[in-house]
Amino acid sequence: MSRISSRIAALVPFLAAGLLAPESSRAAEVKVLPLRDDDHYRHPRKETFYTETWNYQMLLDSGQLVYLSFMVTNIGVFSGTAGVHVTLATTSGPEVFLKDEGRPADWQEDRAAGRMSIGGNSVVVQGLQTRIALRMKRLSADLDIAAWMPGFRAETGRIDLDRAKGLFHATVFEIPRGDVRGTLALDGAERSVKGAVYMDHAVQNTSASDFSRRWNALRAFYPDHTVALLDCRLAPGYGDRRWSLGYVTDRTRLLAAGTYDLAPSGSWKDPKGYDVPTDFGVSFAAGGAMLAGSYRNAGLLNRAALLEQLSWAERKVVSVFAGNPIVYRHKGDAPLELDTGGTKIPLRGASFYEVSILADEPK
Questions:
Q1: Is 97 inside any structural domain?
Q2: Partners of 171 in the beta sheet?
Q3: Is residue 65 within 8 Å of residue 89, measured between CB atoms?
Q4: Quick one: which of 234, 216, 225 has its CA closest to 329?
Q5: Domain containing residue 121
Q6: Helix (H/G/I), strand (E/B), else coil: 48
Q7: Using an 8 Å Cβ cutoff, are 258 and 276 in contact?
Q8: What per-residue string of b and e applies to 286-325 under the rule 16 or more CB within 10 Å gives b?
Q9: How many Cβ atoms sit within 10 Å of the Cβ of residue 11?
Q10: Cβ contacts of residue 3 below 8 Å, gap of 6+?
Q11: Is 103 contained in some domain?
């Protein structure tokens, strides 16, 4: 696999979630459906652009963010790849990014056993239990995930971007919230880890830089609840609109899912001049539940910019297919109040906020 295509694939998971419910002037409930038996597995496509990702985001009790993606992708001019990408990030030091990549044929499935694998890396799903084993050059891990509840899809789980051309993006939420524990060894130094986990599974047959301009995602992990807020700004050719989905759970079930509103109250300028939100108010109401409060930034976990890592010649090629996505992840607090019909519950706990911006977005 070429250096260029590897770099593009490294950012694919960050650009693959959030297109689920249309914006409206007021928050509105979104219909949710249970996952189908085959939702967890690969859905091969014949188009020249195809990306499918299984994205695990773990916020450990130590404060470290673990971003793990299994992926199969093809971006048209390059041969495809199947691989595993891992980002380890904290607010107190540099991130570690690792990858283990091969050919699409290296992807293996055993549906009877609930197993998917790429080389020595595997995921085994049995009901609400997931076992992840990683055997990478510098990293090995054995992680057990216990999901709090079954996953779901919003509406049909698919957004038709261009019906005439058959272009679409689809996301399902396989683990709205769970607990993770196990061992992780980096460069031979093994340690026990535990924390909170979220996981989604996305597939699309067009470039993210073609149909959208900006992605935002807040994930708040409370002791007995979860809040996730996802939204995307579509490109002018696809309606130039904001799409959003928010959901809230307790430990056993999805309480509500719907559109939501944010009121930015703070931002900072990145080195390229883009405004990156840092603080905002939250307003959400659906399914008889109301959520209100704010998100407060507590520091940058990591910043990843694709084109800044490439030569001038490489940038010319990559920008055609991937734009110039810049990804920011911040750790913070999201003190919210959940009202479930007269019962008001204060929510306090760790959270992180992710912003992905394309370089051609107006400054």
A1: yes
A2: 202
A3: yes
A4: 216
A5: 3-357
A6: coil
A7: no
A8: bbebbbebbbbbbebbbbbbbbeebeeebbebbbebbbbb
A9: 22
A10: 314
A11: yes
C-alpha to C-alpha distance for 77 and 72, rounded to whole angstroms: 15
CA distance 201 to 173: 6
pLDDT at 161: 81
Return the amino acid letter for 72.
V
Start-to-end CA span in the chain (Å)? 34
Measured from the Cβ of residue 13, the count of other Cβ atoms closer than 10 Å reads 25
From CA 327, how far away is CA 353, in angstroms rounded? 11
> Is this model's pTM higher than 0.85 or not?
yes
CATH of the domain at 35: 2.40.370.10
For residue 173 the two structure tokens come to 């939420």
Tell me how far the alpha carbon of residue 343 is from its chain's centroid: 31
pLDDT of residue 314: 43
Q: Apex CA 11: angle with CA 67 and CA 13, to 5°?
A: 55
- The per-residue pLDDT for 297 is 92
Taking the C-alpha atoms of residue 186 and residue 88, their distance in angstroms, rounded to an integer, is 10
Cβ-based neighbours of 117, under 8 Å, separated by 6 or more? 107, 108, 109, 123
Cα separation, 337 vs 4, in Å, equals 45
Contacts of 141 (CB under 8 A, 6+ apart): 132, 133, 134, 182, 183, 184, 185
Flag whether 144 is in a domain: yes
The C-alpha atoms of residue 201 and residue 301 are separated, in whole angstroms, by 23
Whether the CB-CB separation of 103 and 118 falls below 8 Å is answered with no
Cα 262 vs. chain centroid, distance in angstroms? Answer: 19
- Indicate the number of domains in the chain: 1
Instruction: Write out residues in the chain with pLDDT < 70, as ranges.
Output: 1-28, 75-79, 156-157, 305-324, 359-363
CA angle 102, 107, 113 (to 5 degrees): 145
Element (H, E) at 170: strand 167-186
Q: What is the pLDDT of residue 140?
A: 97
pLDDT of residue 5: 47
For strand 350-357 and strand 152-154, is the pairing parallel, antiparallel, or unpaired?
Answer: unpaired
Phi, psi of 177 (to 5 degrees): -170, 140
pLDDT at 317: 43
Is the residue at 363 inside a domain? no
